[in-house]
Amino acid sequence: MTNTALVVGASGIIGSNLAQELLANNWTTYGLARRPGNDIPGLQPVAADLMDVASLETALADVAPTHVFITSWMRNETEAENIRVNSAMVRNLLAVLGPKHSVQHVALVTGLKHYLGPFEAYVSGGVPPPTPLRESQPRLPLDNFYYAQEDEVYAAAERDGFSWSIHRPHTIIGKAVGNLMNLGTTLAVYASICKETGRPFRWPGSQAQWEGLSDVTDARVIAKQLVWAATTEAARNEAYNVVNGDVFRWSQLWGRLAEWFGVEPVGFDGTIHPLEAELAQDTEVWRDIATRHGLTEPDLSRLASPWHTDLDLGRPIEVMTDMANSRKRGFTVFQSTEDSFFDLFAKLREDRLIP
Prior knowledge:
By secondary structure, the chain is α/β, with parallel strands linked by helices. It has 14 helices and 13 strands. Helices cover 41% and strands 14% of the residues.
């Protein structure tokens, strides 16, 4: 039987890399988004609003996926609203697909806020979780839209008889434009502005993050894990952390990133310097840089997500994740984190997104 994938959030960092991975493995692949692009050859676009059941019914009338990959979410002002909206998106999608009886597996991408808490209580609710983070750790006694999304998948799986997998990446490193959480591109834009204006490339985060161990997730790695879990019997009905497989300290990596751009690195100086404030006045600076260098995206807000980068780099604890749960089941993909950043920077430059 031919595998048919529905990638929800196909225009994002994870979704776009996943679509390319699926297509490279000869899957029939549909990409669902509110405004799907046409920049991935072979991807069949599906335009739909996950909050609108009628929209989903119309858009998916002729689509009967065997595998569903949910990689998108919608940011709201409060966690209560995050729960309401993001659980409804999952519930609506699976309710529309249920009567088709075609779905064999559903994969849901969440993240480390499963362990660290939601945006409103990020690493601030009581005792910090022990690291490395493991999938066996219990849910926090806090409202969390990731938990609500999981529960929708579990309920639909019980109703419709499909298998599932939950994927919890750390910070995603990969190319996307207009993405809500994009640390790699944010740092690339920040370094480019520093280069153009002569400002130092100053560490914006906490001492704990500067000195502690960390890890990240290359978008290509999570794409491979998603396909692996969907097609490996022993991998089903499990939650998986997913990171590159190495660890690093920002105090060691920061200078290497600065060297790539030819800027002066400045490490932790005793004070947090949020990037959101640093870049707040650079909208016109970036527009001028884009004009002078013939870049394809002059809107700084479409490339940089400093609010999320500040959350990651400002944590008061070191954060790393354990990969044993998928390793012991056969997922052995490894990616050098330094190369993740350098590959991204080269791609951004090749695509004329940074000078």
